[in-house]
Design a protein that fits this description.
Number of strands: 18
CATH superfamily of the largest domain: Ribonuclease Z/Hydroxyacylglutathione hydrolase-like
Structural class: alpha/beta
Helix content: 25-40%
CATH class of the largest domain: Alpha Beta
Bound molecules: zinc ion
Largest sheet: 7 strands, mixed
Shape: globular
CATH topology of the largest domain: Metallo-beta-lactamase, Chain A
Number of helices: 11
Strand order of the largest sheet: 6-5-4-3-2-1-18
């Protein structure tokens, strides 16, 4: 389980920062969050296998977040992809993908399924879900909350107290099935406890600081828009972005475990000032950089998170 920052700039690329893109590698899948221009080259540099991309989420339809799609879709075709690709995005995503597919001459052997995001929509995959939530960016825009689904805790002592022997019956109860043991019906409710904690990663997309993000930041690694430093609060407001301090407040109020600042304006050649200002509010703040990898499994081990 790894988080890879592919591009971390705002609007225009720089020598150090490519257009927005985040790869979330979970088991044998890669979820791609935004696909700015140059994303495919960044994937290669980061050694993330394209073929494992199962779902692409476009948070909103500003060019810096989707202009990498035409190239990526065609490259997947060149590489002989057959597996279906899901693309999610705000209203207008269907038309956008249609246009991308009529750009130049090429044919794809794989199917593309396009789905429009709606507030509160949950996309379920194998062992996880991604919830889309509405943010504030002056255009329909979404944040994304990844949550690993591990099921509920099995209360072995309760099963033992009911006299149920360990084995297949435990497995069925754990799956949420009702079983019959010695003529008695045992409901899964009797032996299941709270939901197990899993990995959580929340991405704000481009936005002003909003409650919806904070509400999904609890227990999570939070990736937040941090286009400007604290001194540019007025600019952040008028352009519908966030400052590093506003991002840090969202992380603190939401109870995030760690904060990554991204979507960094090209004006900051040295983004250290953003990190320093954010840390005054939320000590676990880090400025993301291109190709930065965050090993979530290692964090779980080292820090005891999500256990
Ligand atoms: Zn942007
Ligand atoms: Zn934008």
């Amino acid at each position: 389980m790894e988080l890879v920052f592919l591009g971390t700039t705002a609007a225009v690329p720089t020598a150090q920062r490519a257009h927005p893109g985040i790869a979330l590698c979970y088991r044998d899948e890669v979820l791609l969050w935004d696909c700015g221009e140059g994303t495919q080259r960044q994937l290669i540099l980061a050694k993330v296998n394209f073929m494992r991309i199962t779902r692409v989420f476009i948070t909103h339809l500003h060019g810096d977040h989707f202009l990498g799609l035409p190239g990526l879709l065609q490259t997947l075709g060149f590489q002989g992809r057959e597996r279906r690709l899901h693309i999610y995005g705000p209203p207008g995503i269907e038309e956008l993908v249609e246009r991308v597919l009529s750009l130049g001459e090429f044919e794809l052997e794989y199917e593309i399924e396009v789905e429009r995001l709606a507030p509160g929509m949950r996309v379920r995959g194998s062992g996880y879900e991604v919830e889309a939530f509405e943010v504030e960016h002056g255009t329909p825009a979404f944040g994304l909350a990844f949550r690993e689904l591990k099921g509920r805790r099995f209360l072995r002592e309760k099963a033992e107290a009911l006299g149920i022997p360990p084995g297949p019956l435990y497995k069925r109860l754990q799956r949420g099935e009702r079983v019959v043991f010695q003529g008695r019906v045992v409901e899964p409710e009797e032996v299941l406890g709270e939901e197990k904690r899993g990995f959580r990663v929340t991405y704000s997309g481009d936005t002003r600081p909003v409650d919806a993000t904070a509400e999904r930041a609890g227990d999570a690694v939070l990736i937040h828009d941090s286009t400007f430093d604290a001194g540019e609060a007025e600019k952040a407001r008028s352009r519908m972005h966030s400052t590093c301090t506003e991002a840090a407040r969202v992380a603190r109020e939401g109870g995030a475990k760690m904060l990554f600042l991204t979507h960094i304006s090209p004006r900051y050649r040295d983004a250290g000032v953003l990190e320093a200002q954010a840390r005054e509010v939320f000590p676990e703040s880090h400025v993301a950089r291109d190709l930065l990898r965050v090993d979530l499994l290692a964090l779980r081990k080292e820090r005891g998170w999500w256990k």
